[in-house]
């Protein structure tokens, strides 16, 4: 199925989902997924691919309820589990946009009761940013609720804070449901609204997420199933209200609704209507703030950030009683993948990366091909060798574009790009922030010959005949 998330869809989207390579990738994945469903006896899986403001492809596999043989569809409701954290972070960033708090505010500024015993005598106060990046040093949980199904109330959170500091703030990444529950308390205190109502009025409602809610046992939700046991059985998991941990794990949603949230991540513009966050806030939410100690992944504001080869992926996963979910986005390509499951051993993160590397890559390729190339054949005259006192720069014409390499370097596999900006000028783009990346590049001509290239504030002279 395919639907548009905004009233005025971008023209670029037209036909991307109908591209032959995209549809071939979908069929390839479906063949693999059907085999996974059969041989792993998974209950149900919903998969969707978003490009910019369009849900390109969405499909359900298996059943939402085994006994009733109810099929999974893109409208099936699942417990989203720790995806809730990204929504809580969104609420915090809305309040920051409004000037009601700062990320470097100590938590105690907004919650005077928040006075955990420091791990070290000279520990700085825990800040809101510490909560949202898993850098607070607080314990993972607020009690034994994953074992006894009894989640804490607000008083239970306070008790947990006083007894469960593990590390000094900022020392290391340590995942904490407790920290995000505290962030939800800040949303309530600063906004003056109960958390669930704030989220409905200011996040879910404006985004059009009509089938999403926090900590409500809603009709039509997929039945959650435990992992497959040695005898092939799966336990039916009962609904458990997360209570005060709702900001960390209490969201229920659908694939269609999550597609609307994913599309928010690809938009720019002033706050208003469905644009519930400023461009600056979204950029901050996607930027790594804290690395794991082994440098394999990092945490932004609410989001996790992973690196696979030369690509960065932003997203989050979730695990609740009988539900496993995962969302992953490639921001440069404006491609997002959503996987929702109702089985504890469904491995949605693996499924999501399979979709991203197959269907997602095909979508990105089709969308890129749909963009008209900005190229003037006369720009070929800028290709050549340029020399300064410090470096050599070779400008090369490649497939209706100009790139720059260092011909004296050890390799040329990551050329910098010259992106036309008008008026005969270009902007230098590269994988890293070195050199004058992001600055203007222009060429000087005399008597019909290119004699000099300015990169930022420095220049080099053209070498050789033209």
3D architecture notes:
With 466 residues, this protein is an alpha+beta fold. The chain is 27% helix and 26% strand. The protein contains 12 helices and 23 strands. Strands 1, 2, 3, 4, 10, 11, 12, 13, 14 and 15 form a 10-stranded antiparallel beta sheet that branches. An 8-stranded antiparallel barrel has the order 16-17-18-19-20-21-22-23. Strands 5-9-6 form a 3-stranded antiparallel beta sheet. Strand 19 and strand 20 (425-429) form a beta hairpin. Helix 2 (84-97) runs parallel beside helix 7.
Number of strands: 23
Shape: globular
The named CATH superfamily of the largest domain: DD-peptidase/beta-lactamase superfamily
Number of helices: 12
Quick structural gist:
With about 475 residues, this protein is an alpha+beta fold.
Helix and strand arrangement:
Elements: E1 3-4, H1 20-39, E2 44-51, E3 54-65, E4 70-71, E5 77-81, H2 84-97, H3 107-110, H4 128-132, H5 145-148, H6 154-163, H7 177-191, H8 195-204, E6 213-214, E7 224-225, E8 236-237, H9 246-249, E9 251-254, H10 255-264, H11 279-286, E10 290-291, E11 297-299, E12 304-308, E13 311-320, E14 323-330, E15 335-341, H12 348-370, E16 384-387, E17 392-397, E18 402-405, E19 416-422, E20 425-429, E21 440-446, E22 449-455, E23 458-463
Antiparallel strand pairs: 1-3, 2-3, 2-15, 3-4, 5-9, 6-9, 7-8, 10-11, 11-12, 12-13, 13-14, 14-15, 16-17, 16-23, 17-18, 18-19, 19-20, 20-21, 21-22, 22-23
Helix pairs in contact: 1-12, 2-7, 2-8, 6-7
